[in-house]
Amino acid sequence: MATPFHSITEEDIQAVVEVLKSDWLTTGPAIERLEEAFSQLSDAPHAVAVSSGTAALHAVMHCLDLKPDDEVIVPAITFLATANAVLYAGGVPVFVDIDPGTALIDSGDVERKITPKTRAIVAVDFAGQPCCYPRLREIADGSGLTLISDSCHALGARYQGKPVPFFTDFTTYSFHPVKHVTGGEGGMVVCRDTACNAKLRRFRNHGIDKDFREREREGSWGYSMIELGMNYRLTDIQSALCFSQLSRLQANLSERRKIASRYREIIGSSDRLRPLNTVPDTEHAFHLFVVLVDEKAVPGGRSRLFADLHAEGIPVNVHYEPIYLHPYYQERFGDRSGRCPNAEQFYRECLTLPIFPNLSEETFTVLSKILKTL
Ligand SMILES: *Cc1c(COP(=O)(O)O)cnc(C)c1O
Predict the structure, then answer these.
(1) What is the pTM (predicted TM-score) of this model?
(2) pLDDT at site 2
(3) Cα–Cα distance between 5 and 357 in angstroms, integer?
(4) Which residues line ligand 1 (CB under 6 A)?
């Protein structure tokens, strides 16, 4: 029952082949087309393609010009890259707890953890559900902080009819194969500020003020490196694949929403499994379908159910262990267990059911049977 998380069509393959036969393999017309599509989709003026979602987060952190000891607020439940990016840029990630119903960042705890050193808040649209952005915007504005969304789970999600970048200063996306749209690897930053747009573009290209194509157009050889950057360029090969995949985003989202409602039907009556709450007036992107397994009611709890489903070949998973519990973070920042009690409880109970569009009926049947007899 090994089904890949991604789906590749003949059109996708054709789009990649066209680039391979063209004059540009990297930083050419395909990347511009993809950036333009993202800026339209996000209703935001700037979109900068980079080599991964992690690179996107690092580039955003670079724009903050963090001083040592500057703090950036991140939720305890997210993929490691959200917090690691703060470390790359020389800052300190400050972990805040989640709301136990939605597993999204708890705005009350955000307010409690703001200090004079706080520079930014990173909200993570966990599982594909947008955070409460109007509230987070208010908190950020009230303390002069930058509001960032790590929306790597939530391409196409909306809050009160508005795309996530409507509310934020920066929004990041990933094109890893498990995400809604893939380029093999890849990432994107969407932003509103023109100076930041230029800084992001420099950062992905060694801190150089002009890229090769610009110099070609101008007929000049000169360029200057004005800050320290990276090579975080996305290739045109990857951009073309992403662009082709993007045309199926709406279909992908509706497929995911269908699977989610089937899961809700199965789980609906169970007092042992509880899906995460969905927030009204949002459009959920369902990157993950997470259920909480009642430790007391289910013998062996989440770990037992994980093992049972895994033994049947169902691609179940666990997202995520609170970041500060990882050995590296414990060694660097000390033992912080107990810091975010909701996050730690969540980690004991959470189980991710497969929700990608390729999910076979067979997988679905096996899964339903096990969940129903729980
Ligand atoms: C996937 C993901 C990333 C990192 O993206 P990569 O493209 O794998 O570098 C960052 N944050 C979250 C929440 C993600 O899901």
Answers:
(1) 0.97
(2) 59
(3) 8
(4) 52-54, 78-79, 81-82, 124, 150, 152-153, 174, 176, 187
